[in-house]
Amino acid sequence: MEGEWGLLTERKLLLGNLGMIITFGVCLLLSLLLRGSGQNAMVIISEVIGALTFITAIIAVIYIKSIQKWVPISVIAFLSVWLVFMIGYEAGIHASTPYQWIWFLVFYLVTVTSIVYLRLGYEKVEGNYKLLPAFFLFFNSMLTVSMIFIHIWWNLPFWGKG
């Protein structure tokens, strides 16, 4: 009975991570689609859900002892890039921010590290969860391409950093 009704079984942790990352993705999508005060509320909701998902994934890494440990590691790698993005968003980094290059450098370093861990996660995860790191790589690549575009745009000579 303990394994079936226990609080932290491997299956429950994996399904919890999956459900929370889906909820984070839906809230993130809604925050990108909405405008006005609804957008601000959805950004805060997605940040809270992302933080809870990050904490849950860390707990899952501690408790899962099988090779499926790479599912929550992939979740952590995916969310770490979005965490750096959210810090920049909440800090109000824009074209005229002094030392904005430090934030971009940290973002790119975390992105490269995330790609390495997601690639390792794709190789090690078994079963239906194998698609999770592939989807994470896709969504992180979309964020990275948009951030590269913003970085280039902010550094164009005619943009005017004043």
Description:
Keywords: Membrane, Transmembrane, Transmembrane helix. The chain crosses the membrane at residues 12-34, 40-63, 70-89, 101-120, 132-154. The chain has helices at 2-5, 10-33, 37-63, 70-91, 100-124, 131-154. It is mainly α and 162 residues long. It has one domain. Helix 4 runs antiparallel to helix 5 (100-124) and helix 5 (100-124) packs antiparallel against helix 6.
The total domain count is: 1
Instruction: Please work out how many helical segments DSSP would assign.
Output: 6
Helix content: over 70%
β-strand percent reads under 5%
Identify low-pLDDT runs: none
Main β-sheet description? none
Rounded to an integer, what's the Rg over CA atoms? 18 Å
Average pLDDT confidence is 86
